[in-house]
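Q: For a teaching handout, I want to show students what a protein-ligand complex looks like in token form. Below are the inputs, and the small molecule is guanosine-5'-diphosphate. Please produce the holo structure.
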Amino acid sequence: MTEFTRDTLGWSPFYMSQLDIAELETLTPTRIGTVHRDRVVGFSEIGTLELTLDPGITTAAVAVGDWVLAAPDQHRLIRVLDRKTELSRGTEYHTGDKQLIAANLDTLFITSSCNNDFNPARLERYLAMAHDALITPVILLTKADQCDDPDAFVDQARKLGRDLEVLAIDAKSGDVAGHLAPWCGKGQTVALAGSSGVGKTTVANALTGGQALTQDIREDDARGRHTTTGRSLHHLPTGGWLIDTPGMRGLGVAEVAFGIDATFPEISELAAQCKFRDCDHDSEPGCAVQAAIESGDIDPDRLKRFKKLKRENEYATETIAQARDRYRKLGKMYRGAVKKKGR
Ligand SMILES: Nc1nc2c(ncn2[C@@H]2O[C@H](COP(=O)(O)OP(=O)(O)O)[C@@H](O)[C@H]2O)c(=O)[nH]1
Ligand SMILES: [Mg+2]
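A: Here is the structure, written as tokens, with guanosine-5'-diphosphate included.
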């Protein structure tokens, strides 16, 4: 079995600072590799640990990539440490619950191909999600080998952000691990996102050196509940960690206002200079954004997509807030009824 140290597992002062002396002496920091319905499996300095959960923790609250404290002799997960970053897939609009996908990612490879799959609006969605979570996005354009002019796609992708990393690769026979090495070094954690067929599995296999990865399987049972996720953490020969996230394709945006602004910095920064604080950047007087469109400093298509994404996010965020409010009130009513009965 491979021996890991905390460093090779991605441990850092951020996690260390969350432990008190007693915990430091008795508990074992463990990085979660897979999450099952009733237990989790993780990697630690003392080997692979299979852990059951303490009361009050459900497996829905643990994500692949999490750092937890384990009592190894009892095979128990005691506490989930605060996450550096977390990626969740939309939110259940009717309950306000978030579904965790992965924890403590450093980099998200947003994958698309140098062909008809290339879609700026979709890429911006993923960018908003990554930026909101403070995860570094890298745009990975596959199938460069099947394209006459991959640079044209690279140029288009670069326009979707400021200082955005964009790479065009041949995922099938190119040096994938070599190109992605800057993000896959010791203790660094990465994941791939993108539509079906763009080459995520091909890239993942190239990174892991052909280690068998999970198939795209259904993640929810018929009632939308969280069962075994099929997600897992793989150690890379370059020292990094890949979180395999089958099923992370379609996604709605919700509660990512910060991420949207970060995805469209040229627009969000100017918006602060508009005459009206609630400017829609349509035909309001004193609109700094429209002025920049006139002068050619802002791409009108980017503004259209910015507005559309913002609208979608606002609607979803509002719906979720209402759902949470409803559930809170229902919970209060229910607790009140139980109290009365108990009297
Ligand atoms: N020529 C070429 N084929 C690729 C490349 N990336 C992926 N493919 C092929 O595209 C198909 C879909 O790839 P896959 O990794 O399964 O995509 P996924 O659905 O995103 O996991 C497979 O037949 C791959 O061999 C690439 O960069 N170049
Ligand atoms: Mg796949």
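A: Two things your students might notice: The first helix runs from residue 6 to 9. Confidence is low (pLDDT under 50) at residues 215-228.
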